[in-house]
Amino acid sequence: MKPVVKIEGSVGRMLLVGQFDFNMHKDFRQASQELLENGGVTEIVIDFEQVPFLDSSALGMLLLLKERATAQRKSMVLSNCRDTVLQVLEIACFNKMFTIR
């Protein structure tokens, strides 16, 4: 399922639904671009509430988005991570690179 983008003031939220893997690459990139191109957005929140699993390609997509967001002086937050997702993020040391709420 395609990510859902919501913009509330200066916060752009991307709600992911289902497994976050390579099959989501194109849709994630389009949603990311929408948030990056919006000049009013200063914080990007990736909402994992409905994500049961992510793979290494998802980690790469997150790193690329963080790099692009940082270049535009936008902060990035990963939120509502389930235990299984949080474990993968911690193993990859993403808890040291990202704000996780």
Total tally of structural domains: 1
User: Would you report the number of β strands?
Assistant: 5
Bin the strand percentage.
Answer: 25-35%
The stretches of 5 or more residues where confidence is low (pLDDT under 50) are none
Distance between the termini: 23 Å
Strand order of the largest sheet: 1-2-3-4-5
Outline type: globular
Structural class: alpha/beta
Element-level helix/strand string: EEHEHEHHE
Q: Percent of residues in helical segments?
A: 40-55%
Oligomer state of the chains in this structure: single chain
The CATH topology annotation reads as Transcription Regulator spoIIAA
Average pLDDT figure = 96
User: What is the radius of gyration computed over CA atoms, rounded to a whole number of angstroms?
Assistant: 12 Å
Q: How many H/I helices?
A: 4
Within CATH, the superfamily carries the name STAS domain
Mind telling me which CATH architecture this is? 2-Layer Sandwich
Structure write-up:
By secondary structure, the chain is of the alpha/beta class. It has a single domain, classed as Transcription Regulator spoIIAA (2-Layer Sandwich), CATH 3.30.750.24. It is built from four helices and five strands; from the N terminus they run E-E-H-E-H-E-H-H-E. Strands 1-2-3-4-5 form a five-stranded mixed beta sheet. A hairpin with a 2-residue loop joins strand 1 (4-8) and strand 2. Helix 1 packs parallel to helix 2 (56-71).
